[in-house]
Amino acid sequence: MSADSANGTWEDAVRWLREQPDQHELVLAAYYDDPLAGAADRYWRSDEWHAVCSYLPPTRGRALDVGAGRGIASFALAREGFSVTALEPDASALVGAGAIRALAGETALPIEVTQEFSEGLPFDDASFDLVFARAVLHHTRDLAAACREFHRVLKPGGRLLAVREHVISRREDLRSFLAAHPLHHLYGGEHAYQLAEYQQAIAAAGFRSVETLRPFDSAINLAPHTLASVRQELAARASAKLPGTERVLNAALRRRKLWAAARAVLNRVDRRPGHLFSFVAER
Q1: CATH superfamily membership of 10-218+271-282
Q2: C-alpha separations of 274 from 138, 172, 253 in Å
């Protein structure tokens, strides 16, 4: 497949990416490397997942991993004690249901695979304690319908975690976001909504509360960067104008009140097309 074609599949796009010598860091950051069990274990040990764990419901019951991809989140949820259903329409042995089945078989974790789309879930009402969706909502063909289905299959008191969703500030920014995406030109499958569209779709589905995590609010949105690496970069940039102050600034940014103030400023000025937000909603 040529690099300027948008007619390939997601598997084609990821396979192409893995063949590019200069994209190794991105492959690792996206957990597209093999062996898959090693990549999944690295995700489970990541700062991102550690932050996710603070939002998991206390009941370790049934979890639905929507748009499960290669199964890294399914693996992590199972390691946390959930009985997991991985929803993934793509049959691919590299980036889809085939990969998840192989991972479940290799690790002997409680992961079942269902090949279906999120807008029409083949599950009974009130079936799950948790619906987890990592970078899924911005791919949906019908955002409102997907959110209604998530609400329907959750038990009363259940939780939706929709993490790492691409947000655009203006509709005109979508073109810039798609042009900068490393794989969209290969398979044409990316998208992004405005913040209010996500929030309204989740609320309209019937969720009784929606918490929004802005780009710098959580390590969930920062990966592959961490809170520590972001603070270090901020201190390094500031010290360029104030030589010799990097260590002091880095230490200062570790103070809760100062970091909260810096984070608020960063969230306010960050207008990158496609920056990441996450959502926590209660059924």
Answers
A1: Vaccinia Virus protein VP39 (3.40.50.150)
A2: 10, 12, 26
